Amino acid sequence: MQPFDRRQIIHALDVLTVLVSRDQKSRYKSTAMGVVWAVASPILFLLIFYFLFAVIMPLGIANYASHVMVGIVVWTWFQTSLTEAVTCIPSNATLVNLPRFPVVVLPVASVLSNAATFLMTFPVLLLLVWTQAGGPGLPYLALPVLMLVQAVLTLGLGYFVAALNVSFRDMRYIVPILLQLGYFLTPIFYDLSMVSERGRMILSLNPLVHIVTAYRAVLIEGRWPDWGAVAVVFAYSVALLFVTLHYFRRSSYRFLEEI
Amino acid sequence: MQPILRAEGLSKAFLHRGRHPMTFRSFVEGGWRAAGRAERFWALRGVGFDVAPGEMLGVVGHNGSGKSTLLRLLGGVMQPDEGRIEARAPVNGLLDLNTGMHLDLSGRENILISGVLAGLLRSEVRARFDDIVAFAELEPFIDEPVRTYSAGMRLRLGFATAVHVRPRILLIDEVLAVGDAAFQRKCVQRIGQFRAEGCAIVFISHDMGQVEQICDRAIWLDHGHVRASGSAAEVVSAYKSTLMEASRKLTRPDGPQAVTFQGRTLVAGENRIGSGEVTLEQVRLLGPDGAATGAITKGQGLVVQARVRVHRPVPPPYFSITIADAGGRLCFDTNSQVDGIALPDLKGGETIELDLERLDLSPGTYSFSLGLWQSDWTHAYDYHSDAYLLEVSGAASKGPVAPPRKWVIHRSGA
Predict the structure, then answer these.
(1) Residues B217, B303: one domain?
(2) Chain A interface disruption, residue of B32, B77, B112, B144, most A CBs within 10 A
(3) Which of A163, A248, B155, B179 has a CA positioned 20 to 30 A from the CA of residue B280?
């Protein structure tokens, strides 16, 4: 069989569709509150940050509620996708056992499933932004591009942690800790302008900083993002994806052997 | 005919890392090196065979003999360390029928999921949807969530979806051992149809009777090696004879003697073998009037009854009954596994009965063998070989069976 058989690609896409829709349906069918929960969790975090940094010790950031909400929603997609991707192989062990099951779709399914949740919280985000910072403009056209860049970045990292988890079964405990760290190294509840020159240099190594900043530029400031920064992040993400995809393909075979 | 599936010198080694999988922590603590204690062991060694279109190859062997590894290699979810597999068509599996099913979703939604996971495109599943539902006989319930289905209904749904893949190479793992008799018949029929269409099948099973019945050829895996290969009948009988041999070796020669209800003596090592953790006691053949008997009239029913005694606790065993005629020819053979009956955790004192509603054997003398088998068929706990006799009386007929019959002549055009 050739590696890039047309039917195989269509089949892989169908598997992806089925897995994502199964995940979505079950998430929102078994608990009637499912949709409410998806929206309620970022709002709760928003309230906490708003209370802390706008009421108790004000940071003096304009449109603070919108500022924080953009950060939370973007970060949540990134974090939940990676947390799921780490264990995507062991938690789908029976699928991995099926002949010709395209294992490579599993991390993609994690990213896409959570993208759906991301899109579900988006209306709430827009509502907040519109009342605080003003309605939509032409730069909104950049949003799909930003989502694509974020998806590629997340997927590149997702393949990496999923493959690593085959060799080291404790990655599922380590990744959440690293994500916690990343949460503070990304300006979610603070702003990049408040960080020292040196600190900003360090933070700019974090690709998510540029992604969050770009979303904010579009949604809150109503201007086009810094395309230079977005392009660099995208280029790095694509390169990362190529390397980690290869690593993942080699590791996924080993999963069943490590008993 | 040219084989459609061929395996050559397949070998697969696993690393045993003791009880725990490697963690990042142990990696760091071990000085950034993989723990060197990993032990290599060969799950398969130099296994080769080929299967032609329309042919069915049985694979028999104990648990841990390498059957599942072979299945995974053939399915392409693992790669061999040595040797190669040549498949001239995509390989499909009939493995775990409920894989990917989601209980909250409806039967309809689950068909789409299982169909795609079984290798179909979504468009293909939709095109075959009505056939699948009809085959599963689930039309009235198809929009109900699967959680409301019985285990049997779920199985039917899974099987119906899986068999609509129209495979050219099919791997089957034990699935035929599940479900009720009618369902099993349907499965076997469908498999026959696949073969008629030129599908090559690899069938992995514990059930020797089934392998012998429906496979053309078989291989016997023992600790990863091919111990025997040939016609299904040859391989199964070789496998069975070592089973008896293993049981014979485990028999304690000083085992207790017993006398059957027909007055024959059971002698350990002769007509009674087995390791003896659980034993069959007070075996009786009951006639239609419920009394112990050694004779019935042709077409009457018979109940085979045995009491279980537990000397040491064991995992739930299998119970087997074999009937042979005076010449030693096998007339009937069944066991609790084939019939889908799970024996409970035996405490001792249980009575097992097999109710044969009619026994349409030709008149003559028949001998019954009963056994309690270890749960992966490696040996018998207790096996009474040709220990019970049954005289069937009636008008003589040829062949082992004498079905109730009548003749009707239809005239054409009438």
Answers:
(1) no
(2) B77
(3) B179
